[in-house]
Design a protein that fits this description.
The chain has 281 residues and is an alpha/beta fold. The protein has eight helices and 14 strands.
């Protein structure tokens, strides 16, 4: 077993180091006919907010070769609706469920945590932070979560803020860190290219080009951080996952590669089990 929260009173143990990243796997229902969930260490849900959020206005997708730029707005029906709709499914999955949560203020974070208090189907929380989140705000969000919930807390760090936030969050008692959230990018919309100056789209970047950036961050930070690190960004093969683990990550999250090849979860999990000497189930 792999322990994501070794200093937490409950812990957060996973059987394999392979997880879906937040925003790629729904709330557990999307890939049930395509993926053997026993290959997953845990389910990391789509982002959830206290109140319902609608989708971003189009365009929401721009594609260049294997690079995707996505802007969804994190649509979801709100925390209460998510719990009502998926509680029974999570009970049946047979693996830990990590809820990825969003909050814009400590008060909102406290309200989210209060609703999660005593929720038996959840095993951990992954807190998503925006770019340019200050140290003060990040610590206030973590503190609000800690004061109102007993669940282990993972924080997914923005790519641009790892150097600023990693140290203070570990000193404040976060259980683990995910490095990193997809970085922000900007692309011209090709369909407007022949109609004067191009329109541009902003969003989050996904694709294999992110892997070297991720490996650079891992090589610098995993030796310096006293908490488990989960690698995320551009991982699209067994070799990519092995590289992340070799640099000190305890687990990997796959994102856009799942959309093209959901069977990668199975392949990577089984091969990593062979690497570790564990017999695949």
């Amino acid at each position: 077993m792999i322990e994501l929260a070794p200093d937490h009173k409950f812990g957060l143990s996973i059987a394999t180091p392979v997880l879906p990243a937040a925003g790629t796997f729904g709330y557990g229902e999307a890939y049930r006919d395509l993926v053997d969930y026993r290959d997953l260490g845990a389910l990391v849900t789509n982002p959830v907010s206290l109140r319902p959020r609608g989708a971003a206005n189009p365009p929401r997708l721009a594609v260049r070769s294997e690079t995707l730029l996505i802007h969804t707005g994190h649509p979801n029906p709100g925390l209460s609706a998510i719990l009502r709709q998926y509680r029974e499914l999570w009970e049946r999955l047979g693996l830990p469920v990590i809820l990825h949560v969003l909050a814009s203020s400590p008060a909102e974070m406290a309200a989210v945590a209060d609703k999660l208090a005593g929720e038996p189907t959840l095993h951990g929380i992954e807190l998503g932070l925006d770019e340019h989140t200050s140290v003060e705000k990040a610590l206030a969000l973590l503190r609000a979560l800690r004061l109102n919930s007993d669940l282990p807390v993972i924080v997914r760090l923005p790519f641009s803020e790892v150097a600023t936030l990693a140290g203070p969050l570990t000193e404040a008692g976060v259980d683990a860190l995910t490095l990193t959230a997809p970085p922000r990018g900007l692309l011209p919309l090709l369909e407007d290219a022949d109609e004067g100056p191009p329109a541009f789209m902003r969003g989050r970047l996904y694709g294999p080009a992110l892997l070297p950036l991720l490996l650079h961050e891992l090589s610098h930070w995993t030796p310096r951080l006293p908490v488990p690190v989960i690698a995320c960004g551009g991982i699209g093969s067994l070799e990519d996952a092995r590289a992340c683990l070799a640099l000190g990550a305890v687990a990997v999250q796959l994102d856009a590669s799942i959309w093209r090849q959901p069977e990668l979860l199975h392949h990577i999990a089984r091969e990593l089990a062979h690497d570790s000497g564990n017999v695949p189930h």
